[in-house]
Amino acid sequence: MTAAPAPARLPRPVLPAIPDAGRGRTAGPGAAQTSALVACLDVLRGDQDARTRLQQALDVLPRLVPGCDHASAASGRHGGGPDGGASDAVARRADALQDELDEGPGLHALRTGHSVIVHDLETEERWPRWCDRASAGLRLGSALAVVLTVGRRTSGTLTLYGDRPGRLSDVDLGLLHTLAAPIAGVQAALRTGG
């Protein structure tokens, strides 16, 4: 009997720093968070198809990342592209609103190549229509959009949403970047039919 071939290696994305989120650094994850991180990375690098791996990772992010209540991954086309996904209907709608209004943190990150944090949607002034609809209609309070890159090309965004203002201010950026790299790789696999 011959052994099954090893799964193809995913591209190793390079992530830019988050320039306006430096104050959110923490000392690092605790034992429970580290265990959950390992489980999430195992899912992303697992043997299941790329769509299933992406969905399972997005489903676990709200339990893994303190302050994250909803999560989405959007491609260069943003929103509901074939290589995107969301943890739930709130994240899916928040992304759809960005596409409808042509503004918001995920689109900003995608267009500028810089990740962005929004501490309080009610006081944020960069995307007034999106912030108003996301805070009033979806009851979101904060957002953090991380740029995903493969090589030197921006491939999408990983966006975390908090239900209250300031919920994402203390996100461990090292943890988030550790998760963002394999998510970008899974998105790349989806684009190539993997």
TrEMBL record:
Annotated Pfam families: GAF_2
Membrane-crossing residue ranges in chain numbering: none
SUPFAM superfamilies according to UniProt: GAF domain-like (SSF55781)
Record region (Disordered): 1-30
InterPro entries: GAF (IPR003018), GAF-like_dom_sf (IPR029016)
Coiled coil (residue ranges): none
Start and end residues of each GAF domain: 49-184
Protein name as it appears in the record: GAF domain-containing protein
Species in which this protein is naturally found: Microlunatus flavus
